[in-house]
Amino acid sequence: MNLAAEQKSADVTDWAARIGWVVGLLLFIAFVYWLMRQGWKWRGSLQSDLPELPQAPEGADGDVTLRLSGRYHGSTTAGQWLDRIVAHGLGVRSRVELTLTDAGVDVVRPGATDFFVPAGQLRAARLDKGIAGKVLAEGGLLVLTWQHGDRLLDSGFRSDRAAEHTAWVEAVNRVNQSTTTNHTPTTDASTTPAGDAPFTTEGTAR
Known about the structure:
By secondary structure, the protein is of the alpha+beta class.
């Protein structure tokens, strides 16, 4: 009789300990989550100078060069793969539909903020393996580098068909080279007033 009572008491004590451990673990998880939220808000306040994201102009999908379906893994300060950008929803991972046209890159994100990267703000594209704390296989990430306000950003994408990444890198870099060439000032001899010889200094090759 006494043995049965002692065993029953021991069982109750074990359950109380387990419940205590579970409650403690849940409180710890909630605390860590709260710290992460505070850190996210703090980072967002530091990035408050970032302008609103540009939106696709009407007719931007007229001449489509490439399309891509996959995932958006985040944006960082260019060259700093852990310096996550969270302002204006850029820190939210999501599904994505990318469309490349002569006008730029249209980024459509179901459940998150869409944005548009004008061709004149594209700086480069490359294959990489990590961004914003997300690490993939070598070359498993398509990274677009673009200018937004005073910041140079890297945005990481992964296609559902990773073999498409190379075509995107080549096409985006062609757009960038074309834009750079079109904006490079040239000297037109026809603009030199008649009778005025180009300025030269002694000893300089003509």
